[in-house]
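In keeping with the milestone schedule agreed at the kick-off meeting, the structural modelling team has produced records for the first pair of proteins. Each record is given below as a sequence line and a structure-token line. The laboratory manager (R.T.) confirmed that both were archived under the project's standard naming scheme.
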Amino acid sequence: MAAGVRWIFCPLPTALCLLLFATSALAQDRYTPIAPLPLGDTLLTLPTSHIPAQGAWEIKFTHRFNESIDGNDRLHSLFGLDSNADVLFGFSYAPRRALQLSLARSNTNDTIEGAVKYIVLQQAQAVPGSLALRVGGDWRSEKDLGDRASWFAQAILSRQIGRKAEFFVLPTFVTKAGRAVAGTESLALFDDAFNVPIGFAYRIKPALSVVAEIIPPNNDLPDEVDAEFGWAIGIKRAIGGHYFEILLTNSNGSTVDQYTTSTYQGAPFNHGDIHLGFNIERRFGRRPRH
């Protein structure tokens, strides 16, 4: 009888343990980050809420031709290809799983930008979206400039829809942004500026995406300045640790102080300025997360 009782009731603790284990595993799965789209650290110019694997580092090169492909001299300049360019070289490193350090140098005003990006939340079944915080500064080292230093803070919110699309919203605050020329001096256009750029990516194939960015006109611009939306659209191709992007844009700004005010070097964005550009990024170290 005793043996029969043991045979009946002994499996119950085992079944209970299996049930608790399955419940715990299910709860963990609900908070496991979903697989991100292959976008890398940036869309085209705007940062994403993504970070590579811990220990990975990256080099980046961006190139924006100065001449517009829609300009009067488009044949002479070969639609901008035979013109000078705004370029940026960058470097980043992820010392921790949710932390990334970056340093970049733009030839526009010889600007050096340093930043720290931290992932607060990653989208999962039980988490509706991702959130990253990015803070840093820009130092304009070119000669004969005033208001050389800018500080900025960005919140990067994103929402991935299925395995194809992702939306980004980036509330951004920056000090001493934009440039204005007064006589022989080049000064900041704003003491403080705020804007909310947005971005979108749609994956056509496993490693090929269409990417778009929009920067609204800054509300603090003077009434006499007729600013338009800043925009960029391009194709992003991920191959191993490489990201290749070809794009069209009406803004050559590549650092936070250059694009937040919806002006570039003192001139407002114009829909008629269409510049061809490209980006190349290469990750090293551990197997990259997208």
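The second protein of the pair:
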Amino acid sequence: MRIVSLLPSATEMICTLGLEDQLVGVTHECDYPPAVLQLPKVTHTLIPKEATSGEVDRLVREQLRKTRALYRLSLPLLKELRPNLIVTQSLCDVCAVAQDEVQEALAQLPGSPRVINLEPQSLSDVFEAMRQVAVAAGVSAEAAIQSLTARVDAVTARSATLTHRPRVALLEWLDPPFSCGHWSPELVRLAGGIEGLGQEGRPSRTLRWEEVVAWQPEVVFVACCGLNVERTLHDLSLVQSISGWQELPAVRSGRLFVTDGSQYFSRPGPRLVDSLEMLAHILHPSMHPLPSGLPTPIAVNRACVGSN
């Protein structure tokens, strides 16, 4: 099997299923597990790396209105790699090569490779997507899924005993603010919180800061899509003057947290379970211990934000 992955979450699924040695090409954003960094990159982005978050938002909206394509596929390289299985998605136009570009490329590739389109919108959908990839590659996903499911069940069981579930705002972007969406509100619920801005199984949406303030979250958890902690902290420093921000219960009590949204929460793959465990620990540290090897989200106080 010669597999090309057109999104980072699919790359992580493929490797979790023990198919890492059959991967021959990945996207420019695939960076986990680290070994995939050495593989040929079959895509590039149209968004400049130096763009601010506000500029990224404007460019994304403009590009989607025009062509609905933010990534470009390298057809010559794809031909050279000769894949017989391509894994992509059609859930989010921001996150991968446009579906019509993939179809155009397929018509020019030798051997008519099989294409799997993944569209997970929940944790159970992620596990089903892993099964799809496994079936296409001729392996079993059940052992990997059972291991992941056991971890989810452990968090869920502990959360079931909680007497208080804090109001949570899990934000996926800051300029402008975006709610979380799809699987992330589910993660908040399983972790023992109440997400009042995003809806399970629905896309994230642009917010007004007044909505965030009106929700009066007891915990604000920032996991900006595609951004690392350093970049997120920089953007967070820009919201300090928002009317009502400093009076939010989460800010007053020091329950404002930042994590790497590029690695966690944004990718609908196996590490969503890591994301769940991290979030559960932040919401209820005495109830949910942080598993060994997972990073602790950064608690951000006012002084820390102001210095970034």
